[in-house]
Design the sequence.
Protein backbone atom coordinates (compact mmCIF):
# COMPACT_ATOMS: atom_id res chain seq x y z
CA UNK A 1 0.00 0.00 0.00
CA UNK A 2 2.89 2.36 0.70
CA UNK A 3 3.98 1.89 -2.90
CA UNK A 4 0.58 2.98 -4.12
CA UNK A 5 0.34 5.98 -1.89
CA UNK A 6 3.79 7.07 -2.97
CA UNK A 7 2.41 7.64 -6.45
CA UNK A 8 -0.63 9.61 -5.34
CA UNK A 9 -0.56 13.23 -4.42
CA UNK A 10 -3.10 14.77 -2.07
CA UNK A 11 -4.06 18.14 -3.45
CA UNK A 12 -6.38 20.99 -2.86
CA UNK A 13 -8.21 21.87 -6.06
CA UNK A 14 -7.45 25.28 -7.45
CA UNK A 15 -10.13 27.91 -7.86
CA UNK A 16 -10.32 27.15 -11.55
CA UNK A 17 -10.88 23.45 -10.81
CA UNK A 18 -13.73 24.34 -8.49
CA UNK A 19 -15.28 26.55 -11.11
CA UNK A 20 -15.08 23.78 -13.71
CA UNK A 21 -16.67 21.13 -11.55
CA UNK A 22 -19.58 23.09 -10.20
CA UNK A 23 -21.35 23.20 -6.88
CA UNK A 24 -20.92 19.57 -5.87
CA UNK A 25 -17.24 20.08 -5.22
CA UNK A 26 -17.89 22.75 -2.72
CA UNK A 27 -18.91 20.04 -0.29
CA UNK A 28 -15.37 18.68 -0.18
CA UNK A 29 -12.24 20.68 -0.50
CA UNK A 30 -9.60 18.08 -1.26
CA UNK A 31 -8.97 15.08 -3.49
CA UNK A 32 -6.36 12.87 -5.03
CA UNK A 33 -4.82 13.24 -8.41
CA UNK A 34 -2.02 11.64 -10.33
CA UNK A 35 -0.86 10.02 -13.51
CA UNK A 36 -1.66 6.52 -14.73
CA UNK A 37 1.94 6.04 -15.76
CA UNK A 38 2.79 5.93 -12.04
CA UNK A 39 -0.06 3.78 -10.80
CA UNK A 40 -3.04 2.15 -12.46
CA UNK A 41 -6.77 2.14 -12.11
CA UNK A 42 -7.04 -1.19 -10.27
CA UNK A 43 -4.47 -0.18 -7.66
CA UNK A 44 -6.07 3.21 -7.22
CA UNK A 45 -9.57 1.84 -6.94
CA UNK A 46 -8.52 -0.82 -4.45
CA UNK A 47 -6.66 1.68 -2.35
CA UNK A 48 -9.62 4.03 -2.18
CA UNK A 49 -12.29 1.39 -1.68
CA UNK A 50 -10.35 -0.38 1.07
CA UNK A 51 -10.00 3.03 2.73
CA UNK A 52 -13.82 3.17 2.84
CA UNK A 53 -13.89 6.24 0.59
CA UNK A 54 -16.74 7.10 -1.71
CA UNK A 55 -16.97 9.41 -4.67
CA UNK A 56 -15.87 9.49 -8.27
CA UNK A 57 -12.55 8.94 -10.01
CA UNK A 58 -12.36 11.11 -13.08
CA UNK A 59 -9.98 10.04 -15.81
CA UNK A 60 -8.65 11.86 -18.81
CA UNK A 61 -6.59 10.30 -21.58
CA UNK A 62 -4.83 13.20 -23.26
CA UNK A 63 -3.76 11.36 -26.41
CA UNK A 64 -7.35 11.14 -27.67
CA UNK A 65 -8.98 13.41 -25.08
CA UNK A 66 -11.12 10.51 -23.94
CA UNK A 67 -12.77 10.86 -20.55
CA UNK A 68 -13.92 8.31 -18.03
CA UNK A 69 -15.54 8.20 -14.60
CA UNK A 70 -15.81 5.53 -11.93
CA UNK A 71 -18.24 5.93 -9.02
CA UNK A 72 -17.85 3.83 -5.92
CA UNK A 73 -18.88 3.75 -2.28
CA UNK A 74 -16.57 1.83 -0.02
CA UNK A 75 -16.12 -1.64 -1.49
CA UNK A 76 -19.01 -1.31 -3.94
CA UNK A 77 -18.40 -0.22 -7.50
CA UNK A 78 -21.50 1.74 -8.46
CA UNK A 79 -21.03 2.87 -12.01
CA UNK A 80 -18.47 3.50 -14.74
CA UNK A 81 -18.34 5.44 -17.98
CA UNK A 82 -15.66 5.44 -20.65
CA UNK A 83 -16.56 7.64 -23.58
CA UNK A 84 -19.84 6.18 -24.80
CA UNK A 85 -19.41 2.86 -22.96
CA UNK A 86 -21.13 2.37 -19.61
CA UNK A 87 -21.40 -0.28 -16.90
CA UNK A 88 -18.95 -3.20 -16.91
CA UNK A 89 -18.14 -2.54 -20.57
CA UNK A 90 -17.06 0.99 -19.69
CA UNK A 91 -15.16 -0.20 -16.64
CA UNK A 92 -13.35 -2.88 -18.69
CA UNK A 93 -12.36 -0.24 -21.21
CA UNK A 94 -10.95 1.96 -18.44
CA UNK A 95 -8.89 -0.93 -17.03
CA UNK A 96 -7.02 -1.03 -20.32
CA UNK A 97 -5.86 2.58 -19.97
CA UNK A 98 -2.13 2.79 -19.42
CA UNK A 99 -1.74 6.52 -19.95
CA UNK A 100 -3.72 9.47 -18.69
CA UNK A 101 -4.46 11.43 -15.55
CA UNK A 102 -6.90 10.78 -12.75
CA UNK A 103 -8.53 12.79 -10.04
CA UNK A 104 -10.56 11.41 -7.17
CA UNK A 105 -13.38 13.63 -6.00
CA UNK A 106 -14.77 12.43 -2.68
CA UNK A 107 -18.45 12.28 -1.79
CA UNK A 108 -19.74 12.98 -5.31
CA UNK A 109 -23.00 11.00 -5.54
CA UNK A 110 -23.73 8.54 -8.31
CA UNK A 111 -26.86 9.45 -10.28
CA UNK A 112 -27.39 6.10 -11.95
CA UNK A 113 -26.07 2.77 -10.71
CA UNK A 114 -24.95 0.68 -13.74
CA UNK A 115 -22.72 -1.90 -12.03
CA UNK A 116 -23.43 -2.49 -8.33
CA UNK A 117 -20.77 -5.12 -7.66
CA UNK A 118 -18.00 -5.47 -5.10
CA UNK A 119 -14.86 -3.81 -6.46
CA UNK A 120 -12.97 -7.14 -6.62
CA UNK A 121 -15.85 -8.84 -8.36
CA UNK A 122 -16.17 -6.00 -10.86
CA UNK A 123 -12.44 -6.13 -11.66
CA UNK A 124 -12.76 -9.87 -12.23
CA UNK A 125 -15.80 -9.42 -14.48
CA UNK A 126 -14.08 -6.69 -16.46
CA UNK A 127 -10.89 -8.73 -16.83
CA UNK A 128 -12.97 -11.67 -18.09
CA UNK A 129 -14.68 -9.41 -20.59
CA UNK A 130 -11.30 -8.13 -21.82
CA UNK A 131 -10.06 -11.71 -22.16
CA UNK A 132 -13.04 -12.73 -24.23
CA UNK A 133 -12.58 -9.74 -26.48
CA UNK A 134 -8.87 -10.47 -26.88
CA UNK A 135 -9.66 -14.11 -27.71
CA UNK A 136 -12.22 -13.08 -30.30
CA UNK A 137 -9.79 -10.64 -31.88
CA UNK A 138 -7.04 -13.25 -31.84
CA UNK A 139 -9.33 -15.83 -33.44
CA UNK A 140 -10.35 -13.34 -36.09
CA UNK A 141 -6.79 -12.29 -36.94
CA UNK A 142 -5.13 -15.73 -36.69
CA UNK A 143 -6.60 -18.56 -38.72
CA UNK A 144 -6.71 -21.82 -36.75
CA UNK A 145 -3.63 -24.01 -37.05
CA UNK A 146 -3.28 -27.63 -36.13
CA UNK A 147 0.13 -27.24 -34.63
CA UNK A 148 1.81 -24.56 -32.61
CA UNK A 149 5.36 -25.11 -33.82
CA UNK A 150 5.54 -21.63 -35.30
CA UNK A 151 4.77 -20.28 -31.84
CA UNK A 152 7.38 -22.48 -30.28
CA UNK A 153 10.04 -20.82 -32.42
CA UNK A 154 8.97 -17.30 -31.53
CA UNK A 155 9.98 -17.39 -27.88
CA UNK A 156 11.48 -13.99 -27.24
CA UNK A 157 12.33 -14.32 -23.55
CA UNK A 158 13.36 -17.21 -21.42
CA UNK A 159 10.46 -18.61 -19.39
CA UNK A 160 12.45 -17.99 -16.18
CA UNK A 161 12.48 -14.26 -16.90
CA UNK A 162 8.73 -14.21 -17.43
CA UNK A 163 8.18 -16.18 -14.21
CA UNK A 164 10.28 -13.65 -12.33
CA UNK A 165 8.17 -10.83 -13.80
CA UNK A 166 5.06 -12.64 -12.61
CA UNK A 167 6.49 -12.77 -9.11
CA UNK A 168 6.81 -8.98 -9.20
CA UNK A 169 3.03 -8.60 -9.54
CA UNK A 170 1.81 -7.53 -6.09
CA UNK A 171 0.08 -10.39 -4.32
CA UNK A 172 1.77 -13.24 -6.20
CA UNK A 173 3.68 -15.56 -3.86
CA UNK A 174 4.56 -18.33 -6.27
CA UNK A 175 4.07 -19.43 -9.87
CA UNK A 176 4.25 -23.05 -10.98
CA UNK A 177 4.14 -24.29 -14.57
CA UNK A 178 2.81 -27.83 -14.83
CA UNK A 179 2.62 -30.12 -17.86
CA UNK A 180 -0.69 -31.75 -18.72
CA UNK A 181 0.68 -34.97 -17.29
CA UNK A 182 1.49 -33.29 -13.96
CA UNK A 183 5.21 -32.78 -14.56
CA UNK A 184 6.32 -29.65 -12.70
CA UNK A 185 8.18 -27.96 -15.53
CA UNK A 186 9.24 -24.81 -13.75
CA UNK A 187 8.45 -22.80 -10.66
CA UNK A 188 9.38 -19.51 -9.04
CA UNK A 189 8.77 -18.06 -5.61
CA UNK A 190 7.42 -19.97 -2.66
CA UNK A 191 4.24 -20.30 -0.69
CA UNK A 192 3.86 -21.33 2.90
CA UNK A 193 0.32 -22.50 2.13
CA UNK A 194 0.79 -24.73 -0.89
CA UNK A 195 3.50 -27.31 -1.49
CA UNK A 196 4.43 -26.39 -5.05
CA UNK A 197 6.23 -29.71 -5.55
CA UNK A 198 3.06 -31.65 -4.87
CA UNK A 199 0.84 -29.27 -6.80
CA UNK A 200 1.71 -30.74 -10.21
CA UNK A 201 -0.07 -34.06 -9.97
CA UNK A 202 -3.11 -32.67 -8.15
CA UNK A 203 -3.50 -29.85 -10.63
CA UNK A 204 -3.18 -32.13 -13.65
CA UNK A 205 -5.92 -34.37 -12.27
CA UNK A 206 -8.18 -31.37 -11.58
CA UNK A 207 -7.62 -29.82 -15.02
CA UNK A 208 -8.29 -33.15 -16.68
CA UNK A 209 -11.61 -33.39 -14.90
CA UNK A 210 -12.51 -29.83 -15.79
CA UNK A 211 -11.59 -30.30 -19.44
CA UNK A 212 -13.68 -33.45 -19.59
CA UNK A 213 -16.57 -31.51 -18.13
CA UNK A 214 -16.08 -28.76 -20.72
CA UNK A 215 -16.05 -31.34 -23.43
CA UNK A 216 -19.20 -33.02 -22.14
CA UNK A 217 -20.97 -29.68 -21.89
CA UNK A 218 -19.63 -28.60 -25.27
CA UNK A 219 -18.54 -25.22 -23.90
CA UNK A 220 -15.10 -24.97 -25.54
CA UNK A 221 -11.68 -25.24 -23.96
CA UNK A 222 -10.90 -24.46 -20.34
CA UNK A 223 -9.56 -20.91 -19.94
CA UNK A 224 -9.41 -20.07 -16.26
CA UNK A 225 -9.81 -21.63 -12.84
CA UNK A 226 -9.83 -20.08 -9.39
CA UNK A 227 -9.84 -22.36 -6.39
CA UNK A 228 -10.37 -20.85 -2.97
CA UNK A 229 -9.70 -23.09 0.00
CA UNK A 230 -9.90 -22.15 3.62
CA UNK A 231 -6.17 -21.61 3.78
CA UNK A 232 -5.11 -21.15 0.18
CA UNK A 233 -6.05 -19.71 -3.18
CA UNK A 234 -4.86 -21.03 -6.53
CA UNK A 235 -5.45 -19.37 -9.88
CA UNK A 236 -4.83 -21.50 -12.98
CA UNK A 237 -4.60 -20.70 -16.64
CA UNK A 238 -3.41 -22.60 -19.72
CA UNK A 239 -0.01 -21.45 -21.01
CA UNK A 240 0.63 -23.13 -24.32
CA UNK A 241 0.27 -26.84 -23.74
CA UNK A 242 0.95 -26.48 -20.01
CA UNK A 243 -0.89 -24.93 -17.06
CA UNK A 244 0.34 -22.01 -14.98
CA UNK A 245 -0.76 -21.95 -11.35
CA UNK A 246 -0.46 -18.64 -9.52
CA UNK A 247 -0.56 -18.74 -5.75
CA UNK A 248 -1.52 -15.54 -3.91
CA UNK A 249 -1.74 -15.35 -0.12
CA UNK A 250 -5.52 -14.82 -0.23
CA UNK A 251 -8.37 -13.93 -2.56
CA UNK A 252 -8.35 -10.17 -1.89
CA UNK A 253 -6.25 -9.30 -4.93
CA UNK A 254 -7.41 -11.95 -7.39
CA UNK A 255 -8.97 -9.44 -9.75
CA UNK A 256 -5.88 -7.29 -9.89
CA UNK A 257 -3.60 -10.30 -10.23
CA UNK A 258 -5.71 -11.65 -13.05
CA UNK A 259 -5.57 -8.33 -14.83
CA UNK A 260 -1.86 -7.71 -14.31
CA UNK A 261 -0.69 -11.22 -15.14
CA UNK A 262 -2.67 -11.52 -18.34
CA UNK A 263 0.01 -10.33 -20.78
CA UNK A 264 2.77 -12.18 -18.95
CA UNK A 265 0.83 -15.44 -19.08
CA UNK A 266 0.29 -15.01 -22.80
CA UNK A 267 4.03 -14.47 -23.15
CA UNK A 268 4.73 -17.48 -20.94
CA UNK A 269 2.54 -19.57 -23.22
CA UNK A 270 5.04 -19.04 -26.03
CA UNK A 271 7.55 -21.14 -24.08
CA UNK A 272 5.33 -24.15 -23.55
CA UNK B 1 -7.80 -37.76 -19.78
CA UNK B 2 -4.15 -37.94 -20.57
CA UNK B 3 -1.32 -39.92 -19.06
CA UNK B 4 -1.08 -38.92 -15.41
CA UNK B 5 2.54 -38.91 -14.52
CA UNK B 6 2.19 -39.59 -10.81
CA UNK B 7 -0.10 -42.55 -11.44
CA UNK B 8 2.32 -44.01 -13.97
CA UNK B 9 5.41 -43.35 -11.86
CA UNK B 10 3.88 -44.93 -8.74
CA UNK B 11 2.75 -48.04 -10.61
CA UNK B 12 5.94 -48.48 -12.64
CA UNK B 13 8.17 -47.94 -9.62
CA UNK B 14 6.63 -51.01 -8.01
CA UNK B 15 7.91 -53.32 -10.75
CA UNK B 16 10.15 -56.01 -9.28
CA UNK B 17 13.01 -57.30 -11.38
CA UNK B 18 15.13 -60.38 -10.81
CA UNK B 19 18.49 -60.87 -12.46
CA UNK B 20 19.78 -64.26 -13.61
CA UNK B 21 23.09 -65.87 -12.59
CA UNK B 22 24.91 -63.53 -14.99
CA UNK B 23 23.32 -60.42 -13.52
CA UNK B 24 21.13 -59.94 -16.58
CA UNK B 25 17.44 -59.13 -16.35
CA UNK B 26 15.25 -60.42 -19.17
CA UNK B 27 12.79 -57.58 -19.47
CA UNK B 28 11.25 -55.56 -22.30
CA UNK B 29 12.46 -57.99 -25.00
CA UNK B 30 16.09 -57.21 -24.16
CA UNK B 31 18.57 -58.12 -21.45
CA UNK B 32 18.85 -55.33 -18.89
CA UNK B 33 21.44 -55.08 -16.16
CA UNK B 34 21.53 -53.20 -12.91
CA UNK B 35 24.78 -51.29 -12.42
CA UNK B 36 25.68 -48.14 -10.50
CA UNK B 37 25.38 -44.86 -12.39
CA UNK B 38 28.87 -44.00 -11.22
CA UNK B 39 30.24 -46.85 -13.30
CA UNK B 40 28.78 -45.44 -16.52
CA UNK B 41 29.82 -41.91 -15.60
CA UNK B 42 33.38 -43.04 -14.78
CA UNK B 43 33.55 -44.76 -18.17
CA UNK B 44 32.31 -41.64 -19.98
CA UNK B 45 34.61 -39.33 -18.04
CA UNK B 46 37.67 -41.46 -18.67
CA UNK B 47 37.07 -42.10 -22.34
CA UNK B 48 36.39 -38.41 -22.96
CA UNK B 49 39.48 -37.39 -20.96
CA UNK B 50 41.62 -39.88 -22.87
CA UNK B 51 40.42 -38.76 -26.29
CA UNK B 52 42.69 -36.30 -28.12
CA UNK B 53 41.03 -32.95 -28.80
CA UNK B 54 40.42 -33.69 -32.47
CA UNK B 55 38.51 -36.88 -31.60
CA UNK B 56 36.43 -35.71 -28.64
CA UNK B 57 33.40 -34.98 -30.82
CA UNK B 58 33.62 -38.46 -32.29
CA UNK B 59 33.84 -40.08 -28.84
CA UNK B 60 30.93 -37.97 -27.63
CA UNK B 61 28.87 -39.13 -30.62
CA UNK B 62 29.78 -42.69 -29.74
CA UNK B 63 28.52 -42.29 -26.18
CA UNK B 64 25.24 -40.80 -27.41
CA UNK B 65 24.98 -43.54 -30.03
CA UNK B 66 25.38 -46.24 -27.39
CA UNK B 67 22.54 -44.71 -25.38
CA UNK B 68 20.48 -44.33 -28.54
CA UNK B 69 20.84 -47.95 -29.69
CA UNK B 70 20.07 -49.17 -26.19
CA UNK B 71 17.10 -46.78 -25.90
CA UNK B 72 15.67 -47.65 -29.30
CA UNK B 73 15.50 -51.38 -28.70
CA UNK B 74 14.74 -51.26 -24.99
CA UNK B 75 12.24 -48.47 -25.59
CA UNK B 76 10.30 -50.59 -28.06
CA UNK B 77 10.25 -53.36 -25.46
CA UNK B 78 9.02 -50.95 -22.82
CA UNK B 79 6.16 -49.39 -24.76
CA UNK B 80 4.93 -52.80 -25.90
CA UNK B 81 5.39 -54.47 -22.50
CA UNK B 82 2.54 -55.83 -20.40
CA UNK B 83 3.24 -53.40 -17.56
CA UNK B 84 3.15 -50.41 -19.93
CA UNK B 85 -0.06 -51.75 -21.45
CA UNK B 86 -1.59 -52.20 -18.03
CA UNK B 87 -0.47 -48.92 -16.46
CA UNK B 88 -0.02 -46.34 -19.19
CA UNK B 89 -2.11 -47.36 -22.19
CA UNK B 90 -5.49 -47.01 -20.43
CA UNK B 91 -4.67 -43.31 -19.91
CA UNK B 92 -3.59 -42.69 -23.50
CA UNK B 93 -5.92 -40.35 -25.35
CA UNK B 94 -3.42 -38.37 -27.39
CA UNK B 95 -1.69 -41.28 -29.12
CA UNK B 96 2.08 -40.86 -29.48
CA UNK B 97 2.15 -37.74 -27.34
CA UNK B 98 0.75 -39.65 -24.38
CA UNK B 99 2.99 -42.64 -25.05
CA UNK B 100 5.96 -40.28 -24.80
CA UNK B 101 4.57 -38.84 -21.57
CA UNK B 102 4.36 -42.40 -20.29
CA UNK B 103 7.91 -43.09 -21.44
CA UNK B 104 9.30 -40.16 -19.44
CA UNK B 105 7.26 -41.27 -16.45
CA UNK B 106 9.02 -44.63 -16.85
CA UNK B 107 12.42 -42.91 -17.03
CA UNK B 108 11.59 -41.19 -13.76
CA UNK B 109 10.18 -44.29 -12.08
CA UNK B 110 13.18 -46.40 -12.95
CA UNK B 111 15.74 -43.77 -11.99
CA UNK B 112 17.08 -43.04 -15.47
CA UNK B 113 16.17 -39.36 -15.45
CA UNK B 114 13.75 -37.22 -13.52
CA UNK B 115 12.42 -35.70 -16.69
CA UNK B 116 9.33 -34.64 -18.58
CA UNK B 117 8.05 -33.04 -21.75
CA UNK B 118 7.99 -29.25 -21.96
CA UNK B 119 6.94 -28.83 -25.60
CA UNK B 120 5.95 -31.30 -28.25
CA UNK B 121 5.04 -30.78 -31.86
CA UNK B 122 4.10 -34.22 -33.16
CA UNK B 123 6.68 -35.67 -35.56
CA UNK B 124 8.69 -32.45 -35.60
CA UNK B 125 10.05 -31.24 -32.31
CA UNK B 126 10.18 -32.08 -28.64
CA UNK B 127 11.76 -30.26 -25.71
CA UNK B 128 12.59 -32.24 -22.59
CA UNK B 129 13.49 -30.80 -19.23
CA UNK B 130 15.36 -32.96 -16.75
CA UNK B 131 15.95 -32.18 -13.09
CA UNK B 132 18.24 -35.14 -12.58
CA UNK B 133 19.94 -37.50 -15.01
CA UNK B 134 22.95 -39.81 -15.27
CA UNK B 135 25.65 -37.28 -16.02
CA UNK B 136 24.18 -34.37 -14.02
CA UNK B 137 26.89 -34.69 -11.37
CA UNK B 138 29.61 -36.17 -13.55
CA UNK B 139 33.06 -34.69 -14.10
CA UNK B 140 34.25 -33.28 -17.40
CA UNK B 141 33.75 -30.32 -19.64
CA UNK B 142 30.74 -28.90 -21.46
CA UNK B 143 27.26 -30.33 -21.85
CA UNK B 144 27.46 -34.09 -21.43
CA UNK B 145 23.99 -35.57 -20.93
CA UNK B 146 24.85 -38.36 -23.36
CA UNK B 147 22.35 -40.88 -21.99
CA UNK B 148 19.25 -38.69 -22.08
CA UNK B 149 20.23 -37.33 -25.50
CA UNK B 150 20.34 -40.86 -26.87
CA UNK B 151 17.17 -41.97 -25.08
CA UNK B 152 15.16 -38.92 -26.15
CA UNK B 153 16.17 -39.33 -29.76
CA UNK B 154 15.32 -43.04 -29.56
CA UNK B 155 11.87 -42.51 -28.09
CA UNK B 156 11.00 -39.81 -30.61
CA UNK B 157 12.07 -42.20 -33.40
CA UNK B 158 9.89 -44.90 -31.86
CA UNK B 159 6.94 -42.54 -31.61
CA UNK B 160 7.05 -40.76 -34.95
CA UNK B 161 9.49 -42.40 -37.37
CA UNK B 162 8.95 -45.57 -39.39
CA UNK B 163 7.72 -48.56 -37.45
CA UNK B 164 10.34 -50.38 -35.39
CA UNK B 165 13.00 -51.38 -36.43
CA UNK B 166 13.00 -49.27 -39.60
CA UNK B 167 12.80 -45.82 -38.05
CA UNK B 168 16.29 -45.39 -36.67
CA UNK B 169 18.13 -42.10 -37.13
CA UNK B 170 15.16 -40.05 -38.27
CA UNK B 171 15.56 -37.51 -35.47
CA UNK B 172 18.46 -36.08 -33.54
CA UNK B 173 18.68 -34.71 -30.00
CA UNK B 174 20.73 -31.69 -28.94
CA UNK B 175 21.38 -30.70 -25.35
CA UNK B 176 20.90 -26.97 -24.75
CA UNK B 177 21.23 -26.72 -20.95
CA UNK B 178 22.88 -28.89 -18.35
CA UNK B 179 23.02 -29.21 -14.59
CA UNK B 180 26.61 -30.37 -15.07
CA UNK B 181 27.53 -26.90 -16.38
CA UNK B 182 25.63 -24.97 -13.70
CA UNK B 183 22.17 -24.59 -15.26
CA UNK B 184 19.16 -25.20 -12.98
CA UNK B 185 18.04 -28.09 -15.19
CA UNK B 186 19.00 -30.03 -18.26
CA UNK B 187 17.21 -29.27 -21.51
CA UNK B 188 17.15 -31.53 -24.53
CA UNK B 189 15.69 -30.66 -27.92
CA UNK B 190 14.75 -33.34 -30.44
CA UNK B 191 14.30 -32.27 -34.07
CA UNK B 192 14.37 -33.86 -37.49
CA UNK B 193 17.83 -34.91 -38.56
Sequence:
Amino acid sequence: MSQQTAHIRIVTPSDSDLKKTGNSLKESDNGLQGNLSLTNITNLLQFLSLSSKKGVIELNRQEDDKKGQIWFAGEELLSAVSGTLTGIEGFADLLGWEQGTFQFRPDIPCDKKTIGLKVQHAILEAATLLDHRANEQSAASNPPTEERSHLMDLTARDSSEVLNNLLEVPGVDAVVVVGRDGFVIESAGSSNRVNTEELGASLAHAINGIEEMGSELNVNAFQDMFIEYGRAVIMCRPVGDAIAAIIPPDASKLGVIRHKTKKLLVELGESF
Amino acid sequence: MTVMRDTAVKALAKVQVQSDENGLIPEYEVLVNLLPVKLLNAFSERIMAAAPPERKAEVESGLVRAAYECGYHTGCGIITSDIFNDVVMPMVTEDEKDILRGAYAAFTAWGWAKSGIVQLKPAEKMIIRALDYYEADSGGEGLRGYMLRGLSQAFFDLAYAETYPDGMDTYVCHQTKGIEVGDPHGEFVVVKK
Q: What stands out?
A: The longest strand of chain A covers residues 54-61. Confidence is low (pLDDT under 50) at residues 1-28, 144-155 of chain A.
